[in-house]
Amino acid sequence: MTTTAPAPPDTGPAPPGPVRRVLTGFRRNKLALTGALILLALLAFCFLGPLLHPTDQIHTDLTQANRAPGAGHPLGTTDLGYDLLGRLMYGGRTSLEVGLAAGLLATLLGTVYGAVAGYFGGWADAVLMRVTDAALAIPALFLLVVVATLVTPTKPVLILVIASVAWLSPARLLRGEALALRSRDYVHAMRLMGGGGGRAVFRHILPNALGTVVVNATFQIADAVLYVAYLSFLGLSLPPPAADWGSLLSAGITYTQVGHWWLIFPPGLAIVLVVAAFNFLGDGLRDAFDVRLDTGRGSHR
User: Fold this and answer.
1) Is the peptide bond before 241 cis (omega within 30 degrees of 0)?
2) Which of 61, 167, 182, 199 has CA 20 to 30 A from 259's CA?
3) pTM of the predicted model, to two decimals?
4) How far is the C-alpha of 92 from the C-alpha of 245, rounded, in Å?
């Protein structure tokens, strides 16, 4: 006579993995989805729009200067005769490319810097953080203006200049994360097994601070887009015929007194939309990565 082993108890569905949990939390955040849609729309506008509305953004045509919105020019023309809709697409490429690259580079530099300072602590943390505090004491815009006036603005130069002042905030943020993570059991176990500081930082500290890094990156990109606009508004933009939203705003502000609103409203609105989109995206990712909010989501939604 054979006996059948009892079936294991039904423990219910397996808990969702971290990636699925983050995606689920992100989808529940309507502002985050709105930000993602706005960002996708702006990317399509800037990079695919010229295929649907081709214009000449190289040669000036003063006979078409400062025309109001109408047939052939849906948003009017600039003071140099460029079609403003095409100029907005053309300039948006520069603003988004520089903003994305500078924000990601600043996040990368600040993340590694802060993680190293927080993990090793002691004199290394004291020296590295005093350097950061000294740099933070100087207004970022002042540093940007000084550096930008010393070099000829190009896309790579703008990316490096903006990243050179924007990494300070993520450095302090990741330093705090590293101070908390270095006391975890898995870090102590790695040390007992002979692991070094580099392994601890890059295999344990940074992967476990990924949520903080990703969220901070969205805010850094939004700030970088604003920095591009600041520099361009102050006249430290790429040389013509290149353009960005800040330089369009700077050029159009001269004509506001004569009622040429179309020269400043579209680029100003574009800057507001892209910064708001990245901030909405960051808020949504922050909530999605925060494990402590999972229970609250389940009880309220």
Assistant:
1) yes
2) 61
3) 0.83
4) 6
